[in-house]
Design a protein that fits this description.
The chain is mostly helical and about 70 residues long. It has three helices and no strands.
């Protein structure tokens, strides 16, 4: 990952994720966090960071690909 992507995750993506209502998923997040030993929680955080960054990039690429399909006025 580039330094910019790590900065973007820390300063934009992660705060957005943290403020979202988890609803039915909160039980599952708590279950995973509480079942992991403290030494493995940082590895889980890195996996979530990786997934969030790539989901963000996928959204950018999808949006760019769809831009050609939108009729211009």
């Amino acid at each position: 990952m580039s330094d910019f992507m790590l900065w973007l995750h820390a300063n934009y993506i992660r705060p957005q994720i943290d403020t979202q209502e988890k609803g039915d998923y909160s039980f599952h997040f708590d279950l995973v966090q509480n079942s992991l030993p403290p030494s493995e929680r940082s590895s889980m955080d890195k996996c979530l960071e990786f997934a969030a960054l790539h989901a963000f990039v996928l959204g950018l690429r999808t949006g760019a690909g769809l831009a050609a399909a939108v009729p211009r006025r």
